[in-house]
Specification:
Radius of gyration of chain A: 21 Å
Number of strands of chain A: 2
Largest sheet of chain B: 2 strands, antiparallel
Helix content of chain B: over 70%
Strand order of the largest sheet of chain A: 1-2
Distance between the termini of chain A: 52 Å
Largest interface: A-B, 57 and 78 residues
Helix content of chain A: 40-55%
Largest sheet of chain A: 2 strands, antiparallel
Distance between the termini of chain B: 24 Å
Oligomer: heterodimer
Order of helices and strands of chain A: HEEH
Structural class of chain A: mainly alpha
Structural class of chain B: mainly alpha
Number of helices of chain A: 2
Order of helices and strands of chain B: HHEEHHHHHHHHHHHHHHHHHHHHH
């Protein structure tokens, strides 16, 4: 088996794992003005993360950045380097 | 007894004016070393109070948060000065010492008087550091940097005065809710590079000399995060602003070709994580945010050191012109790879542990969580791009070798610390400023989740790297709009003004010309009006006219001519002070400030 096939197998193994998200370390006291965004929910158990969710998020992120790179420079490019 | 650490840096800067050669090198290393020893002796509760204009100005107020910031500030100050040791620019070094010192003064300030004072010194010396490049580009960027910070300063002063009016307190702490808190948060947001207030950062940092960029990337934005933690933590809109900064920064970073501009946009993005942590306001998020400050200072300084070394040795910093450095600059490549993995949050490196805390704290807030996760993808993508196109792809045309020993030691030490904290996070956890619980950084879920996210990013980058390859363009940001608006405003102001004073040039010559014209007019008045009047009186009485004329010639003319001559001489001397050398102006300002402090106290 080639090294590329092994790498692909390991990668697939990683991205198909689901897991229970941690709720550890979340109990916290409010420090600031409004209380904190996470304080009220802090003690709640977080949901099970389904297999490959983070990998899918990574793929969505890469698609987003590819779209940005392919479109925005057409509108935002200066004529030459070093204008600043 | 503990001395406020800023005093060590300020005295060092003063001594540096008189030293050259090896003595200068020793002083540059000795100053942060002495400050580190001073800080090691400091304990929470220590203070130093200075009487000024009837106020008790608290120049040193030690607690866990200020100590935490002081440790990392002095550590990176030491490494940054070591890195820039062979670049013998005295003006740069003096400013660097005052800049570091004022940042130290800022984090240990116990009241808003000292807080604002050091904030201003940071802005001024930061400007001079940028301008120390002495190119037109650097000087223009410096002025824009200063203009932005002046706007922030006005908001800061207004907010703090309202706070003082409402509470009667000038102690550093939570600012009165409502408009005062909003104004102060906005002012701090200028320094933290909130979205829309951020354009000074990617403009200024790549324009400064490469050694100055190492200092600049550390102090201003991180002092702002510290300030936000002090004056306005736990505010929802600030947490969301942090998420927006994280995503906005990487969105612009992935489009950059200039390596230092790419890193500058990543300062905005990474500071976004810290601001999100502070904005969420829980002990977990605050500890995560400040842990990220600590780690970010290390890896961002390391990245600017690595890219600066490339610029120093090759004269290039555009990714489209680089490549092939892995073989020719191996130590620079290894240290830059380590710090790039650190900022990307790869397991075993320090960014993984602190970013994990912030992201974990954000999980209950779904929009914030998604923004931070997407920013993680963009961060890894940016640094895969930097490493691959800058260092690892083949390019036989490039000529390079590793930089001098002092730079290699500074880069190596920074990279080592990033790795050390990654595998032994408790070394920093034990000094975190807020109450801690037992954190499990390397739990299976966390490692697995990050591996999935970063693994997919790496896979897609290598499958489609032509899509992400750098292009030789500069990307406009909001500064394009600001500059257009500023130019329109200037044209509006200039035209009526120019019509009114069509032949006037506003320079120092004007002052001399104006003095000359005034006294020519005075002489004319004297000879035509005064003399005429005196002569007229003389015609009415011979004796009277003799005495009057004598009085006119001796007293009036003498007084007018004497004053005129002395003013002309003064004006000539004043003209010679217009040297056009920024160091002379800065010295004059510093002397004036010291004189003012001496008189007012």
């Amino acid at each position: 088996m080639s090294s590329k096939a092994i790498a692909l197998a390991v990668f697939l193994l990683i991205i198909t794992q689901g897991y229970a998200s941690e709720a550890e370390g979340k109990a916290a006291e409010s420090v600031g003005h409004e209380g904190a965004t996470g304080v009220e929910q802090a003690e709640h158990e977080l949901p099970y993360i389904f297999p490959g969710v983070e990998a899918v998020l990574g793929a969505i992120g890469m698609a987003y950045f590819a779209a940005i790179i392919m479109t925005l420079p057409k509108f935002l490019a200066e004529e030459k380097e070093g204008v600043h | 007894m503990v001395v406020p650490p800023f005093i060590v840096f300020f005295i060092g800067a003063l001594l540096l004016l008189f030293l050259r050669g090896r003595a200068r090198d020793i002083l540059l290393i000795a100053v942060p070393t002495i400050a580190a020893v001073d800080l090691a002796l400091a304990r929470p509760g220590a203070s130093w109070i200075f009487k000024f204009m009837g106020f008790d100005v608290v120049l040193l107020q030690v607690d866990k948060l200020s100590l935490f910031m002081g440790y990392i500030f002095v550590l990176i100050g030491w490494l940054g000065l070591l890195y820039s040791l062979k670049v013998r620019e005295n003006w740069h070094d003096v400013n660097a010492l005052i800049y570091i010192g004022s940042s130290m003064g800022f984090v240990f300030a116990g009241d808003f008087f000292a807080f604002v004072f050091f904030w201003e010194i940071m802005a001024i010396t930061g400007t001079f550091l940028i301008m120390s490049g002495k190119s037109e580009k650097a000087i223009r960027a410096g002025f824009r940097y200063f203009a932005f910070h002046l706007l922030g300063d006005v908001a800061l002063l207004a907010g703090l005065l309202m706070h003082f009016h409402a509470t009667g307190s000038i102690s550093v702490g939570l600012v009165q809710s409502g408009l005062p808190a909003f104004l102060v948060a906005t002012a701090v947001g200028v320094n933290a590079a909130f979205v829309l207030l951020h354009t000074w950062l990617p403009d200024a940092y790549p324009s400064a000399p490469f050694t100055a960029s190492v200092f600049l990337c550390v102090y201003t934005t991180k002092a702002a995060v510290y300030a936000m933690g002090r004056v306005s933590p736990g505010v929802d809109w600030i947490a969301l602003m942090g998420g927006a900064m994280a995503l906005y920064g990487v969105t612009f970073a992935v489009m950059q070709n200039n390596a230092r501009r790419l890193l500058s946009y990543h300062v905005i993005s990474q500071v976004g994580y810290m601001i999100a942590g502070v904005g969420m306001g829980t002990a977990l998020s605050l500890n995560g945010g400040f842990f990220h400050v600590f780690n970010h200072i290390l890896y961002k300084a390391g990245l600017f050191m690595g890219v600066g070394a490339v610029l120093y040795m090759t004269g290039k910093e555009e990714l489209s012109e680089l490549g092939g450095l892995a073989r020719k600059m191996p130590i620079t490549t290894i240290s830059t790879t380590v710090v790039a993995f650190s900022i990307s949050g790869v397991p075993l490196f320090n960014g993984f542990v602190s970013k994990g805390l912030v992201v974990q704290a954000s999980e209950p807030n779904f929009p914030l969580f998604v923004m931070l996760e997407l920013a993680s993808v963009g961060t890894f993508l940016s640094f895969l791009k930097l490493l691959y196109f800058g260092f690892y792809r083949s390019n036989s045309a490039i000529e390079a070798r590793d930089p001098p020993l002092n730079m290699k030691v500074a880069m190596g030490a920074t990279a080592f610390l990033c790795f050390f904290i990654g595998v032994y996070p408790d070394s920093v956890v034990r000094i975190l400023p807020y109450p801690t619980q037992e954190y499990h950084f390397y739990s299976a879920p966390h490692v697995l989740g990050v591996s999935q996210l970063l693994g997919m990013t790496a896979l897609l980058f290598f499958l489609a790297r032509t899509v992400y390859s750098p292009h030789r363009i500069t990307i406009r940001d909001f500064d394009y709009i600001y500059r257009g608006a500023a130019n329109a405003f200037l044209r509006f102001v200039e035209k009526p003004w120019t019509r009114l004073h069509y032949n006037v040039h506003w320079d120092y010559d004007l002052g001399v010309k104006a003095v000359g014209r005034t006294f020519r007019a005075a002489f004319a008045f004297d000879s035509r009006v005064v003399d005429g009047a005196v002569d007229g009186v003389g015609k009415s009485g011979f004796v009277t006219s003799i005495y009057s004329r004598a009085f006119d010639l001796v007293v009036v003319d003498g007084a007018v001519n004497g004053v005129g001559d002395s003013l002309k001489a003064g004006a000539r001397r004043l003209r010679t002070t217009a040297t056009g050398i920024i160091e002379d102006y800065a010295s004059a300002i510093a002397a004036g400030v010291l004189l003012l402090i001496f008189i007012l106290r």
